[in-house]
Amino acid sequence: MWGGFHLGDYPAVRFSTTLAALGLATLLAATPAAGQSRVPAPQTYRFVSELGNAAGIWVNPGAMGYFDASLLTGNITFDRPESSWEVGQYQFGIQWGPLGFGYTHDEFHDTTGFGQADNYTVSAGFATNGNGAGAARTWRKVGDAEASWDIGYTFVSQAGVSFGLTWRDIGSPVVRDTVLDERVVGAVTFREATTGRFSISAQAEYKTKLKEFRGFRVGGSLKPVDSVEILVLAQWGGDGDFDGFSLGFYLTDKSAMGWGVVGLESNGDIRTGNAGASFMGQRTGL
Fold this sequence. Notes:
Blueprint: H1 16-24, H2 41-45, H3 55-58, E1 69-79, E2 86-96, E3 99-107, E4 116-128, E5 131-141, E6 148-156, E7 161-170, E8 174-175, E9 178-179, E10 183-191, E11 198-207, E12 212-225, E13 228-237, E14 242-252, E15 256-265, E16 270-283
Antiparallel strand pairs: 1-2, 1-16, 2-3, 3-4, 4-5, 5-6, 6-7, 7-10, 8-9, 10-11, 11-12, 12-13, 13-14, 14-15, 15-16
């Protein structure tokens, strides 16, 4: 078990730890331009159809109800805007059953406006019979930034397929003089059920007010051994242009997980890196 849910109750979710590796690869387009806001890094490297490993805090609150253990997780993002690497974002999350709290710190590396930002997220949800739903509230401490809501839904089938749907930034908050577009994000994942050695996922984002697609990604993973997951993912922008691809890995055991990835732009330049770890405690008894 990983992520605090029982595999006996939801057989298809045994792929949740390796499914997280799929989304990890999409970090490639995470570097923000000056004056823009920055989404939490887990949203850029994970799919909304996955469970476990604090997915409910930053990715899809619909995953919160599947969790019945305590979890500590950390994540750090590095940007390479020029020739040197710089810290772009770091995060800390704590989860207790279906309740979670997350802290995110952003570095924008510009000389005008606000060069840093702190964000605080509270998330809660429930799940029954393979259906999960939840909501998250994020407060932002940067200038006159506004708070916003996310709501989400997750479905897990008995045949190795999971589906997720999230409505993000409800209310189109203003952050660093940038209006965050409301987005509906949907994803589906298939994990081979017999051995769990490979999977494939696809995700799309749609801007509700602008009525246009924001992007599309597809990824796959392979487990050569039980504790190692190798992944590759490709991403396209809303206009259909190829954005790039990423390569990464996940290392897991019964109560801990570590990961790393490099993101390559469409011209092959490495611009983004990500590293993190999670540690799971005892079940909460909920």
